């Protein structure tokens, strides 16, 4: 009889689907944003990007020469970190009539490696002239990095400027930085996977979830698909299988949400690789939810609550659509699986731990989750590890 030998790593994957409880690791008074397969965690610590691992502890990544701050937005499985920092940098012009600009203080994406440290990527001007008169200082346009894949490709979006001038971008080591999307509605790129598929929000007058790949833009269906009415939606994360998560309004945008998106119920949703949409619902007693990340095995994290937050970056206008970062739901962090549905992460940690979990920002292939909460009333970052998983 032929003997079948399975790789040992497969046995470690089995508990992930059935894990019901987590252990909590205190990361200290920090804001975690991302975690990779090796349980390396990155985020912000008192105005500086950091990287943390169980074996090496906390390490601040510093700031760029001449800069004042840094914040990490993503880390890939090779340990390369991306984020946003200020410091000297160059704006490369994509407009024939406009020259490159050297800036003494430019808010720009960076990549960090253990050998080369933090390197600014600069920004770009364009692809078309600014849609208002008198603007010539592209040094004032900020670029924010949101994610990095295992090929080292960085995705993100620009800060807001008047008249809804806001773009998504992709940076590669061979092609530099390119912008895409539309300057009306604002465009956000919230995640990039190994195939360079990017997801975010763009398209049309009110904004919809979008996927970009090989230069082709695809609008993802929303919860109003087939109704003939305008709903709005956003894609916040994706995995290497092409599954996408985010949110969609549950009622038509007009006349329900056009003046203020924060009063409009939204639900966390999952788009399959074929583009079908699934409503993930909310936790009991809540009216809104949004999904932020999904791992290789289809585990989804997000937040469920009754308050929608639109964190503006200095522009004015309708919340969530006029020069803002992607909106979030303030409430309780959740994990969703096809088997168990949506569960409050607070119900999956020891009640005697002293923790109240407030938000979940990322998870890895093993089901480990990072986020923010309070420990005995103090704001701290956390790492959740399924109890049946061998800890790194």
Characterization of the model:
With 392 residues, the chain is mainly beta. The chain has a domain at 181-348. The protein has two helices and 29 strands. The chain has helices at residues 8-18, 253-256; strands spanning 22-28, 31-35, 41-45, 48-53, 57-62, 70-75, 81-93, 101-113, 117-120, 123-125, 143-148, 154-158, 168-172, 176-180, 188-192, 198-202, 208-213, 216-219, 233-238, 244-249, 266-271, 277-281, 288-294, 300-309, 328-337, 341-344, 355-363, 369-375, 378-386. The strands form seven sheets. Strands 6, 7, 8, 9 and 10 form a five-stranded mixed β-sheet that branches. It has a four-stranded antiparallel β-sheet with strand order 1-29-28-27, with no helix packed on it. Strand 17 and strand 18 form a beta hairpin.
């Amino acid at each position: 009889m032929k003997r079948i030998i399975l790789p040992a790593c497969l046995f470690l994957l089995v508990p992930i689907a059935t894990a019901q409880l987590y252990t909590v690791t205190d990361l200290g008074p920090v804001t975690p944003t991302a975690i990779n397969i090796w349980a390396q965690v990155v985020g912000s610590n008192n105005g500086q990007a950091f990287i943390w691992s169980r074996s090496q502890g906390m390490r601040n990544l510093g700031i760029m020469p001449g800069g004042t701050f840094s914040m990490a937005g993503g880390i890939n499985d090779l340990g390369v970190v991306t984020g946003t920092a200020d410091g000297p940098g160059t704006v490369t012009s994509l407009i024939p009539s406009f020259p490159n600009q050297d800036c003494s203080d430019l808010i720009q994406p960076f990549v960090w490696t253990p050998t080369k440290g933090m390197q600014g990527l600069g920004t770009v001007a364009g692809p078309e002239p600014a849609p208002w008169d008198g603007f010539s200082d592209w040094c004032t346009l900020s670029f924010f990095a949101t994610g990095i894949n295992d090929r080292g490709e960085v995705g993100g979006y620009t800060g807001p400027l008047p008249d809804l001038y806001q773009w998504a971008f992709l940076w590669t080591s061979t092609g530099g930085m390119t912008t895409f999307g539309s300057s009306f509605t604002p465009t956000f790129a919230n995640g990039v996977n190994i195939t360079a598929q990017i997801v975010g929000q763009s398209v049309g007058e009110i904004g919809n979830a979008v996927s970009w790949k090989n230069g082709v833009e695809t609008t993802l269906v929303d919860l109003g698909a087939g109704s003939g009415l305008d709903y709005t939606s956003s894609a916040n994360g994706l995995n290497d299988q092409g599954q996408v998560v985010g949110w969609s309004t549950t009622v038509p945008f007009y006349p329900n949400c056009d003046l203020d998106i924060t009063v409009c119920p939204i639900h966390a949703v999952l788009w399959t690789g074929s583009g079908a949409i699934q409503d993930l619902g909310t936790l009991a007693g809540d009216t809104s939810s949004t999904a932020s990340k999904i791992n290789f095995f289809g585990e989804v994290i997000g937040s469920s609550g009754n308050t929608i937050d639109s964190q503006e970056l200095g522009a004015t206008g309708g919340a969530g659509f006029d020069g803002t970062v992607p909106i979030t739901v303030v409430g309780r962090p959740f994990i969703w699986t096809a088997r168990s549905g949506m569960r409050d992460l607070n119900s999956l940690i020891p009640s005697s731990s002293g923790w109240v979990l407030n938000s979940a920002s990322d998870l890895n292939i093993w089901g480990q989750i990072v986020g923010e909460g309070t420990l005995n009333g103090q704001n701290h970052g956390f790492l959740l590890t399924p109890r049946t998983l061998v800890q790194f």
